[in-house]
Amino acid sequence: MKCRVCRGPAVIDVRRHNANFCAEHFVKLCRDQVAKAISEFNMLQPDDRVLIAVSGGKDSLALCDILDHLGYRVEGFYISLGIGEYSKESRGYVERFASQRDLPLIIDDLPIDYGFDIPHGSRAAKRAPCSACGLSKRHLFDEAARKGGYDVVATGHNLDDEAAVLMGNTLHWHTEYLGRQAPVLPAHDGFPKKVKPLVRLTERDTAAYCLLRNIDYMVEECPMAAGNRHLFYKSALNDIEVSSPGAKHSFYFGFLQRAAQHFADAAGQEMPAIRACSQCGAPCSSETCAFCRLVDRATAPVPIRMKPSRSSTKVKT
Amino acid sequence: MIVKMRNPNREVEIDRSMAVGDLLTTLDLNREAHLVIVDGQLVPRDMVLSRDSVVEIRPVISGGSL
Ligand code: SF4
Ligand SMILES: [Zn+2]
Ligand SMILES: [Zn+2]
Question: Shortest Cα distance from B46 to chain A (angstroms)?
């Protein structure tokens, strides 16, 4: 295997580009792809202050490294979710990465700042863990951006993530979600602008990028993720990709270029009026925002269920 | 060779040499979803792994184990 650019020994094959690359030129390919996505979708301006959601995984750390290399002013935002060892370890990866690279880092701690963790809080609030977790992450990320005055927030969603979401939305014809699925969400009603600069890279690309750049990332997965549908779609798409290289890319980018516009109406109809949450002031569409309602339910004292006493079983009418 | 896999952690032994690409096929692992690493370095698909190598196969799919 030889590098397409320099003809030196290659370390990786990228079948959707029909090419192999050495370490140096693969790293350059990844950065070029991110720069291309940024300009294609008008994601960032040169002097933007960018807040990056970091988890300690390969995607968010690769994103920090690439945006920093492209010259953007980046800061990291990490949320400790209280998911046992997983949260402790992932925080370690983020803190080591940030201190090695002088990356300014903001940390929110769900158990300390809000009094609940994802495993217990989601049970108390009768929500699926990932749903409570996603809601909390979006809320805290938006809030950090608003309070810190950042121009834009960036997440490490890659091509596999976006193609898997698209597949789920298409299989179930969630037209309102299809209308909103985009690599850039403009700022609106107090919500920050959101961008996904890694949409032109696969998960294999970001993992290889981290290895080649000596970025130590957390390989272990969140224990709550096992068996979720998102993973199932990713694996189905990778099965297709093996026999049809480039399929994920054309599925997602073909959708953006030729199909997304047809769902714009479905997305628009559902947009409710925005006001401020009565508890935290965040923009929301009801009296109290979904996060404050989650906090209330997740931290409510648990009622003790009593066995029916004799007298109460007798009182039958 | 000794092959270490993650999520969950496990090990298999293969008593012959083979190319990286063939190793993934033998173990029925999707080439888009895994990287092969020897001594902390990424190795290309056509590299032949000797019988005494220690190899890590790392899944790259986030959102849980596969
Ligand atoms: S897998 Fe679910 S619970 Fe775990 S970090 Fe992701 S969204 Fe949160
Ligand atoms: Zn090269
Ligand atoms: Zn609120």
Answer: 7
